[in-house]
């Protein structure tokens, strides 16, 4: 099935056309600066996407469905869903939980409804894979009304990637997914780690928002919440200032001055103390999560690295694994530095836990889930008009 995959942000729209039967990518691109003079809104962005499709694929690009990456599915969405107006409104109603993302995702959906009203659309939620967390993992130890009245709980993100990588890792090990216990380290500019038991997510480091957990490119990950309340009570920072500081000025960037792992690794190799500290902090934080999740899953069969840093930075993988000796983890140094786009084992044969590198493919996973849902539902009709 030929699927247009859309990742619609507030000021950018990323797209790919995928052929799911042959697992090929026909084209990909991004429209930026939505909201500026040239591209006033998501409808105008979609006009540019259409022009690109026609230029590459001909007057009739042959699209059969659209799959959307939707960041927040709240408690309602544990699976991909076929989009209609009610679903679109539900995505918009979740805006308080993802103010930067969900409204933009819904704008993308509405723009497609206007442009190609007969094209079926599927929403694939970044939170959905984590709906299997047990309550003791997703509740915060705060008064109940914060959960019941405000939806304050752990949701987790990067679910599409974690699910896809789990499937690939199980395949590589020759285990059925339902027999796979492991730890998925999705290390990109945003980073999270997920505990997988019997193929399902049982804990994950991101929380109510994607700010929690690991030291990331520009995000702090976990900090003592009192730091924030103290700074606000003293009147030194506003909530907005702290929010942008923790999301945009922290992590590797806050400590080493750059959010690009390549630059931080290179600086550390040249003796830059701040870069060295940032790497040590990021690796140590991840090691602590891996230790904890090894316990959570009752003994992991595999630790899996994925996303920009996880797939490409042998230096960071080495640093992380060097601190996992107590778990019996031993890297094969040669295998670790090898460059490949294929899923592979990088641990030594006597390692107690296998270490894998598995390239993620969120767009491919969204296209596959979209095609699957449309086939399963036999639903090839346009959504009902409002
Ligand atoms: P992502 O968000 O998955 O695109 O990942 C972005 C992160 O991957 C950035 O921190 C990049 O510095 C990092 N990255 C990409 N390529 C490499 C590489 N060859 N070596 C080290 N880090 C890389």
TrEMBL record:
Pathway: Metabolic intermediate biosynthesis; acetyl-CoA biosynthesis; acetyl-CoA from acetate: step 1/2
Active-site residues per Swiss-Prot or TrEMBL entry: 126 (proton donor/acceptor)
Residue numbers binding ATP: 14, 186-190, 260-262, 308-312
Swiss-Prot/TrEMBL site (Transition state stabilizer) positions: 158, 219
Principal subcellular localization: cytoplasm
Reported function: Catalyzes the formation of acetyl phosphate from acetate and ATP. Can also catalyze the reverse reaction.
GO biological process: acetate metabolic process; acetyl-CoA biosynthetic process
Subunit structure, as described in the record: Homodimer.
This protein's encoding gene: ackA
Top enzyme category: transferase
Family according to the record: Belongs to the acetokinase family.
GO molecular function terms noted in the UniProt entry: acetate kinase activity; ATP binding; magnesium ion binding
Catalysed reaction equations from the record: acetate + ATP = acetyl phosphate + ADP
Database matches in Pfam families: Acetate_kinase
Residues the record lists as binding substrate: 69
Name of this protein: Acetate kinase
Cofactor: Mg(2+); Mn(2+)
GO cellular component, one term: cytoplasm
CDD domains the record matches: ASKHA_NBD_AcK_PK (cd24010)
Binding site for Mg(2+): 7, 362
Alphabetic keyword roster: ATP-binding, Cytoplasm, Kinase, Magnesium, Metal-binding, Nucleotide-binding, Transferase
EC number(s) reported in the record: 2.7.2.1
UniProt cofactor note: Mg(2+). Can also accept Mn(2+).
Subcellular location: Cytoplasm
């Amino acid at each position: 099935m030929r699927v247009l995959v859309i990742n619609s942000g507030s000021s950018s729209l990323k797209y790919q056309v995928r052929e799911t039967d042959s697992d090929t990518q026909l084209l990909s691109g991004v429209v930026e600066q939505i909201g500026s003079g040239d591209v006033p809104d998501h409808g105008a962005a979609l006009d540019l996407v259409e022009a690109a499709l026609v230029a590459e694929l001909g007057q009739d690009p042959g699209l059969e469905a659209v799959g959307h990456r939707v960041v927040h599915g709240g408690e309602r969405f544990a699976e991909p869903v076929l989009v209609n107006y009610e679903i679109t409104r539900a995505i918009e109603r979740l805006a308080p939980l993802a103010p930067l993302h969900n409204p933009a995702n819904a704008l993308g959906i509405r723009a497609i409804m206007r442009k190609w009203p007969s094209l079926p659309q599927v929403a694939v939620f970044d939170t959905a894979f984590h709906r299997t967390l047990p309550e003791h993992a997703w509740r915060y130890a705060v008064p109940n009304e914060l959960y019941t009245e405000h939806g304050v709980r752990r949701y987790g993100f990067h679910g599409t990637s974690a699910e896809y990588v789990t499937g690939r890792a199980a395949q590589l090990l020759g285990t059925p997914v339902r027999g796979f216990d492991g730890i998925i380290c999705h290390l990109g500019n945003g980073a999270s780690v997920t505990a997988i038991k019997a193929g399902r997510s049982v804990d994950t480091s991101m929380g109510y928002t994607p700010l929690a957990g690991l030291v990331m490119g520009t995000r702090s990950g976990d900090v003592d919440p009192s730091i924030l309340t103290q700074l606000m009570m003293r009147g030194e920072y506003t909530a907005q200032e702290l929010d942008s500081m923790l999301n945009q000025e922290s992590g590797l960037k806050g400590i080493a001055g750059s959010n690009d792992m390549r630059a931080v690794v290179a600086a550390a190799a040249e003796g830059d103390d701040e870069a060295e500290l940032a790497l040590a902090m990021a690796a140590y934080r991840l090691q602590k999560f891996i230790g904890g999740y090894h316990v959570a899953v009752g003994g992991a069969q595999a630790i899996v690295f994925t996303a920009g840093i996880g797939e490409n930075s042998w230096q960071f993988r080495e640093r992380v694994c060097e601190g996992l000796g107590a778990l019996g983890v031993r890297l094969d140094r040669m295998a670790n530095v090898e460059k490949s786009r294929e899923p592979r084992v990088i641990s030594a044969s006597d390692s107690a836990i296998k270490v894998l590198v598995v390239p993620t493919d969120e767009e491919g996973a969204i296209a596959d889930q979209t095609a699957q849902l449309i086939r399963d539902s036999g639903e090839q009709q346009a959504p009902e008009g409002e």
